[in-house]
Amino acid sequence: MSGNWWDILPREVYSGLEAVETGQPWYSVYRIHDWLYALYEDGQYDEALMYLVIGDEKAAVIDGGTGIGRLDKLVMELTDKPYFLLLTHTHNDHIGGCEDFEEIAVVDDVMSRESSSHGLGKDKMGEMLEPGAVIKPLPDEFDPDNFYAPPYKVTHWLRDGEIIDLGGRKLEVIYTPGHSSDHICLLDRDARYLFTGDIYYTGGVTSYLPGSNFDDFVESCRRLVDLMPYYDYLMSAHNEPLVDKDQMREMYEGAKGIKDGTITDYTTRRSVAVNYDIEVRRYQFSRFSLSVRADL
Ligand SMILES: [Zn+2]
Q1: Is residue 167 part of a domain?
Q2: Distance (Å, rounded) from C-alpha 251 to C-alpha 286?
Q3: How far is ligand 1, taken at its centre, from the CA of residue 223, in Å?
Q4: Can you give the residue range of the structural domain that contains 177?
């Protein structure tokens, strides 16, 4: 790939959204509805994208992001409702804010149990500060030399099919392993949004990291395609919100074609994760790529 990762910024979708100024400039904040905000880390390579979903009684913060900024302080600026952190899974770019939240919900799985009891060390969190990865000034209170994710307390272990009721706003837990074994999507049937976590985003989607399972990934995509009558837009955990739902079908058909061997056009590269140097195959589709283990 040529050029810099930030050359495509700002992504077009954001020009149609209402930007909100806050006291936490690490995050770019967009109001999608009076009850829904996109909290976007556009200054860092992963372009982590979190959502604040505000019900009548409480608010859910979907994902914690990198932890470089103070997500809890940002949330308190945007709502006076009690809030909790709702993780789609526990990779490093999703659990960064955990230490600052008193209430955390995540699906009950061996990976999320491991993540919450041990946190993640400087090597794994430091991946996100590699040279060229950050283009915005780091927040004053952030110490890059002491960046790690401490263990965190999960106050609610989620189950597949569970309904999270925020008061006049419901999120349905859809267990979708594959990218990681502890991955969920969240379906808002009333607003017709699917919060996809890392199962879908416009960018390089992976299914080869430790805890990934490509067969599970294909099956999770199939399940999400079956649910397409109930949502119109994909609200991804990276890069951009409000992606047309037809992309979910392309992801499923792409993943299935890779599994069946009918899609054969790929490039080979090494894994991007530290201490995990394996060969992976990268398949390019219209708005995303999907990378799988070469020895699948
Ligand atoms: Zn992610």
Answers
A1: yes
A2: 10
A3: 20
A4: 5-265
Q: CATH number, domain at 243? A: 3.60.15.10
Q: Residue 199 carries which side chain, given as an amino acid letter? A: I
User: 3 C-alpha to center of ligand 1: Å?
Assistant: 22
* Segment (H or E) for 49: strand 49-54
Other residues' Cβ atoms within 10 Å of the Cβ of residue 43: 22
How many Å separate Cα 55 from the centre of its chain?
21
- Looking only at the bridges linking them, the beta strands covering 59-62 and 83-86 are parallel
In terms of Cα–Cα distance, which of 276, 181, 168, 184 is closest to 223?
184
Q: Note the pTM of the prediction, 2 decimals.
A: 0.97
CA of 22 to the centre of ligand 1 (A): 24
Q: Which helix (H) or strand (E) holds 244?
A: strand 243-244
Within 13 Å of residue 277, how many CA atoms lie on the same side as its CB? 1
Place of tokens 């000034």: 137
Ligand 1 mean position, distance from CA 74 (Å): 20
Q: Which residues lie below 8 Å from residue 233, measured CB to CB, with a gap of 6+?
A: 192, 193, 194, 241, 242, 243, 244, 245
What's the Rg (C-alpha) of the chain? 18
Specify whether the CB–CB gap between 189 and 170 falls below 8 A. yes
pLDDT tens per residue across span 114-164: 999 999 999 999 999 999 999 999 999 999 999 999 999 999 999 999 999
Asked, for residue 164, whether it belongs to a domain, the answer is yes
Both tokens of 201, joined, read: 């985003």
Q: Rounded to the nearest 10 degrees, what angle do helices 214-226 and 246-260 cross at? A: 140
